[in-house]
Write the structure tokens for this entry.
Amino acid sequence: MSRNLDFSHTPSRKRATILQAAGDYAVTGVTIVQGLVLVPLYLYYIGAHTYGLWLASGGILGMLGLMNFGIGSMLIQRIASFYGKKDLPQVGIYFINGMIVYIGICLLFGLVGWIISLWLPDILTAIGNDSDLLQQCFQLAVVAMVLAVFNECLRSFSQALLRPIIPMIGMVVGRIVGIGVTIWMLFDGFGLWAIPVGALVAQSLILLVNVFNALSLFRRLGVRVEFKKSVIKEYCKTAPVLLMATAGNKLSQEAEPLLITVFLSPEVTTAYMITRRAADIVFQMLNVVTGSTMGTFSHLVGSDNRDNVRNIASKLLFISFSLGVTGFAAYVGLNQAFVSLWVGESFALDQTVILFIALGFFARAFRGLLGQILYGLGDFTYTATVIMLEGVGRIFMASALLDLLGVVGVPLAFALSSVLSILILGPRLKTALTMQYHLFSITRLMFSGVILFGLATSLVQMKLPVDSWVGFSLYSGVFLLSVLIIYILINWAKCRDIYRSFVT
């Protein structure tokens, strides 16, 4: 029996997308539970002061995470595209040489992390026992992060081949085991060591699963290992642009609390971050849908069926718009009550700020899908440059609007910068796929958005009494159902077509 992959049994793109999305949601769920369970334990067993220092070092580690250069997106696109063309030698070449690039990134990451660890106590003004402990734990966390970066490479390979299930199972199981190790070490008196050790155990288990899975897939591909300097150069040439795009987005988001603190006060910063917390969750859920389509869409592009590519892109844009409108309309209508029950009414900013937060995140989510589709088409440089300029422009725009309008200037800058990117990338995609925009359909979609956001704002103005989590749950269920029904009725024909295409 041949060990080569049988293309007559190539996994369904729909099935691969569903499995990828389900896995991403499972990982997100584990992450949420992890935060809810572990944070109180950290405060009790580690102490607020030491844990605060660790959180500060985690911010530095998060910035180091930018050093993956966004290569994963390019690796998925290239491999999935060649897999769609049934060009197995190129699949092997782009994976092997992509892995070489990733190894270089991991070595660079580890070196920079170790250098930073030498000055970490001085940076965070840690003294006494905290100094050595923080430094050593940070070094171990760097090792865990290096493994996480390499895991991204192996996971991207499986995703590109439309076989995401094993890496996703490994990721969920590894995270759960890591949480268990952390809890055991906290109870056993290991203190701060529990956090990086738990992360290292989790990433090590995930690595074992990913290595065995990648080796199995590569063996079944039946191609030889081949070093290609031109492919490595291609990865390295595109990496800086992808890095700038990632950094622009990351820095603009991280800059929001800093800008509010500088222009206004730390108290307003706290209220703003609490007010936008639910919007962050909705945005993450939408990102799962966007991210899960990358491999399957690139595979479809590689099959060279332009009509099918155009049809799928159109459906993805409609689904993203629909989920974004309903999700953020729910945020507008429910957030005041949610924040009041969660931490107290005093931390909830006014409805104007909430509305602009919703619009900003909605525009960014839709722009995110536009970017992913263009990445799937291989349009990296132009798209990444626009995203990078969006992030940089947002910082300057937010600074100016904060001075003029107060805290509402931050989400307004968020919304305006994302809309500008949509206006640039939308025509780019239209040209690339020779798509047709129907003014009536666009107008109807915009009208449905206005109706839902208007309904949400009106309900908030009514100030319905929601003084318990049970009442909030009932209120949320009725509101969400109403939003969905109204949206479906306004866009009945399109929703029906999407449903029929999905079930068939």
About this structure: The CA atoms of residues 14 and 400 lie 45 Å apart. Residues 1-8 have pLDDT under 50 and may be disordered. The chain has 18 helices and no strands.
